[in-house]
Write a sequence for this structure.
C-alpha cells in the first residue's frame, strides 16, 4: 500500500475498489459521464486540484479520453497529473463480455502495471502518513450534523476552510480527513461558534 497525497479521479466504483487495495489516497468517482452534470463533484475536484493536485486515471478507451478531457477543461487552476493505463485487450471477470473497444479498464489492470503507470507519470509515495479520526459521529458531537443549526455551522466551516459549498456530509468528512484530526476540527468549530454567537 502506497500513500499518495493527490486526489485520484476514476470512472467507477470498481476502479475505486481496485485502487483502494493498492494506494492510500482520496479517490473520487466520476460515475462515467455523470460528471458532466454533477456540479458538486466538479467543485470537489477543483478544490483538490488547488489544494493537493489531482491525478486523472480513466480507462484507455474513447469514453475515458472524453471524461479526462472534460475534467482537464473544467479545472482552471491547480495541478493535474495524467496517469495512463496501457491498451490491454481482455474483459473484467465480473463482466459477461468485453467493453465496446475490447480493452481492459482500470479495474482489470494488474496491480504491478498500475503502479508502473503511476511511476511513469512521476507519482511517488508521499512521506506524510497522517491518519484522521473524523467520522459521522464526530460531526454529530460537534453540532455539525443532527442539530437545528448544523447546516449553518457546516456552511461557516466550509467557508473558513475555502471548501466548495455544495458538499454532502459524507464528502465533507472525506475532505476533512485529508486536512486535520478530530481535535483540530473541534478547536476550529468552537472558534466559529464563538465568532457567530454560538450557532
Amino acid at each position: 500500500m502506497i500513500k499518495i497525497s493527490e486526489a485520484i479521479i476514476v470512472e467507477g466504483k470498481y476502479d475505486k475498489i481496485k485502487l483502494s487495495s493498492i494506494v492510500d489516497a482520496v479517490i473520487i468517482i466520476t460515475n462515467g459521464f455523470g460528471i458532466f452534470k454533477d456540479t458538486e463533484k466538479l467543485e470537489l475536484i477543483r478544490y483538490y486540484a488547488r489544494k493537493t493536485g489531482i491525478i486523472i486515471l480513466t480507462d484507455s478507451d474513447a469514453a475515458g479520453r472524453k471524461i479526462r478531457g472534460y475534467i482537464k477543461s473544467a479545472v482552471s487552476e491547480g495541478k493535474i497529473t495524467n496517469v495512463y493505463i496501457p491498451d490491454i485487450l481482455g474483459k473484467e471477470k465480473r463482466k459477461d463480455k468485453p467493453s465496446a473497444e475490447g480493452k481492459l479498464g482500470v479495474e482489470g489492470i494488474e496491480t504491478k502495471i498500475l503502479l508502473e503507470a503511476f511511476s511513469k507519470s512521476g507519482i511517488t509515495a508521499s512521506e506524510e502518513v497522517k491518519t484522521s479520526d473524523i467520522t459521522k459521529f464526530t460531526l454529530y458531537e460537534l453540532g455539525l450534523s443532527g442539530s437545528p443549526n448544523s447546516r449553518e455551522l457546516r456552511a461557516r466551516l466550509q467557508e473558513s476552510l475555502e471548501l466548495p459549498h455544495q458538499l454532502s456530509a459524507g464528502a465533507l468528512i472525506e475532505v476533512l480527513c485529508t486536512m486535520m484530526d478530530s481535535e483540530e476540527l473541534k478547536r476550529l468549530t468552537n472558534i466559529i461558534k464563538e465568532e457567530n454567537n454560538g450557532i
In short: Helices lie at 13-20, 39-51, 62-74, 111-120, 136-141, 150-160, 169-179, 182-195.
